[in-house]
Amino acid sequence: MTNRRKLTLIALALIVALGAFGYSLQRAAAVTPGLYLVDGNPNCGNLYNSTVLEGPDDNLLDLGPLFGFKYDGNPTGDLSHTLTNGGGWVLTGSSPADPNNSVSIFNVLLSGGDGVQFDWSATLGIDAVIVKAQDANAYVYSPEAFGASGLLAPANKAISHVEFCYDYELNAEKTAQTSYTRTYTWDITKDFDATYDKFIGDAATSHGYQVSVDQTVTDSDFAVSGSITVKNPTPFAVTFSVSDVVDGVPATVTCDDYALAANDGAPGGADEETCTYTAGLLAGDDGTNVATVTSLNGNVDGAEATADYAFGDPTTIVGDPEINVSDTNGQSWTASGDDSWTYDRDFVCSDDPADYTAGFYTFDHVNTATIVETNQSDTATVTVNCYAPVVTKDASASYDETWTWTLDKTVDPDQSEFAGNDLDDWTWTVTVSESSEEGNFAVTGSIYVNNPAGSPGPMTVSLADQLNDGTIATVDCGAGATSITVAAGAQGSCSYTASPADRTATENEATGTFNGISGFEGTAGVSFDKNVVNGTATVADDEIGLNELLTAGDAGTRQWTATEGATCSDNPADYADDGKYSVTDDNTATLTSDDQNLQADADTTYTCYAPVVTKDASASYDETWTWTLDKTVDPDQSEFAGNALDDWTWTVTVGESSEEGNFAV
Predict the structure, then answer these.
(1) pLDDT by residue (tens digit) across 602-647?
(2) Contacts of 629 (CB under 8 A, 6+ apart)
(3) Closest by Cα among 406, 412, 414 to 431
(4) What digits encode the pLDDT tens for the residues 478-517?
(5) What share of residues in the chain are helix, strand, coil (percent, to 5)?
(6) Hey, how many other C-beta atoms are within 10 angstroms of the C-beta on 126?
(7) What is the DSSP annotation of 505-566?
(8) Distance between CA atoms of 189 and 294, rounded to whole angstroms?
(9) Predicted confidence band at 9 (pLDDT cuts at 50, 70, 90)?
(10) 397: burial class by Cβ within 10 Å (0-12, 13-18, 19+)?
(11) Whole-model pTM?
């Protein structure tokens, strides 16, 4: 490896080390930095056009002409000087005097009493340092450097002079603050709607609720803002413009003044201006903000300033990061993000039959969950349809009015005696009366049980029935049962009978019991219909020419009369020996009804008299009797063998006959 090549590598290492030591670098240039060996005796004004003998690039054109400040001699110790002429320091070319900036040479390494290596520092950015000894080593910095170490002349020769090349540019520094708005919006959902069909008296139905909240976080109004401080470290007065771009978005930049005085060496003042900027962004991506300051003075370059920015926590909060949720069912929760909660509530039908109309009772339970902070809410509606039996009835009431008839027949006078041919009249009287008695009271009918349409199924209802006089009816739903099962939307019926003691009852009430709940009542008015028993009769009496149909209760006691007379017989043979002639006139009245056949008799006797002729007489006659006598035996003869004999029978017969005669009066 040649000595020249070794020097190049050493110099490059020194440049890297400078960065590690924290020397401030101000701006990047297009030139390739490094150690260049250039031909001849270049100065800062023409270095860019020099012939590169060796280096990281084959030319230095991108450097352009630079101002120069030369220590015109061999440095043998520490040196420091403002950019003004004097003390071996010379401004080259058209470089202006700049008493506010300086360069220093130190750590000089001597060889044979001559300086061959040194370190340097400067108060302004240096683009290149030319170390001359026959040819020149040009140390090129990009970005500009404010110091370096280990600079050598070519071939480690004694240094003939050192020239610092620089240009002037404005200094810029900036800040970057992020801001954005985070908006919290919420949606709330209350579930679940439901409809339940239930019977009165059913067990409670457990309904599950769910409350959900959905948080939407929207970041907006992204902006990067801050300050851009432009400083003029040069001896020139400078006007400038400034632009700022954030993530491709031009910022709005505002400066109070766009003219800077020449550097006066004091902090602040007219050579410094602080501008503000702001840029609205579409997104909150982190990045680097670049401000570009353009100098309008040809002797002074502009500057760039960068600042990293990162979007951290939002600077403005809209809405509520955390919410409280209240529920009208009595629950409450807190949420700071998407969340949901579940719980159960029991629903039961009213057990009061009075709440039901036509066997149906419904209610809506509207439950609302509300975000307290935003007043947003959602509801869930549970509809409970409740069904109960509908009991109706009819009633037919009756009783028997049973009539009893009485019949009486009289004659006046009931006997008469007459002398001569003319007789007095007599009067026949027929009397009918009736009386009634109530009985056989009965109330009958049907009890109807309706299971409303839409109910959840069949219902079995037990029934009882009672009159308002306290009489208990007998209910028969078939085979003596007192309960009935009715399908949904259907009607069933049971019969009943009641036997009250009288007809004072005016209302009949049926009571149904279902699911252990009684009070399902059906009523019917009771009006007893009269059933007339034996209520008509026919009264007849031929003697007086009576034949009439009677209706009970029409006229109370009824009477009919007829007068009759007679003439004594003129036939003496009709008269008895005593001269009397008696006639009895019998008369019968009848009453015929459904249940009775009555008969009433009356008679009257009248006696007629006639003269009686009497005499005496004695009369006799003889009745002569003749008698006869006969006697027989049977048998009249017998023959026997042995000692035993048959019997025989003796018969005596007497007869008589008479004859009348010898009559005399």
Answers:
(1) 888 888 887 887 777 888 898 998 999 999 898 888 776 666 667 8
(2) 652, 653, 654
(3) 406
(4) 999 999 999 999 999 999 999 999 999 999 999 999 999 9
(5) 5, 60, 35
(6) 24
(7) --EEEEEEEETTEEEEEEEEE--EEEEEES-EEEEEETTTTEEEEEETTSSSSEEEEEEE--
(8) 58
(9) very low
(10) buried
(11) 0.60
CB 173 within 8 A of CB 305: yes
Cβ atoms 111, 133 nearer than 8 A: no
Handedness of CA 538, 543, 546, 547 (dihedral sign): positive
Which residues make beta-bridge pairs with 495?
446, 476
Residue 9's SS3 state is helix
**CA distance to 12, 57, 282, 299, per residue, from 128 (Å):** 14, 15, 43, 17
DSSP characters for 230-244? EE--SSS-EEEEEEE
Helices H / strands E in the chain, number of each: 1, 46
- Contacts of residues 21-25 at CB distance under 8 Å and 24 or more positions apart, as own/partner, are 23/145, 23/146, 23/147, 23/148, 24/146, 25/125, 25/141, 25/143, 25/144, 25/145, 25/146
Between strands 415-418 and 597-609, the pairing is: parallel
Tokens of 529: 């219909």
Residues 6+ apart with CB under 8 A from 622: 660, 661, 662
Beta bridge partners, 260, equal 238
Of 334, 308, 333, the C-alpha closest to 321 is: 334
Structure tokens at 231: 């400083």
Q: Tell me the three state secondary structure of residue 353.
A: helix
pLDDT tens digits for range 120-137: 999 999 999 999 998 999
pLDDT digits (tens, 9 = 90+) for 214-261: 999 999 999 999 999 999 999 999 999 999 999 999 999 999 999 999
**Token pair recorded at residue 33:** 């930095």
Tell me the torsion sign for CA atoms 139, 143, 145, 148: negative
Question: What is the reported pLDDT for 555?
Answer: 75
Q: How far apart are CA 391 and CA 387, in angstroms?
A: 13
Coil, strand, or helix at residue 12? Answer: helix
pLDDT, tens digit, for every residue of 150-207? 999 999 999 999 999 999 999 999 999 999 999 999 999 999 999 999 999 999 999 9
Angle at 374 between CA 370 and CA 380, to 5 degrees: 25
Strands 34-38 and 135-152 turn out to be: antiparallel
- Rounded to whole angstroms, the Cα distance separating 119 from 350 reads 102
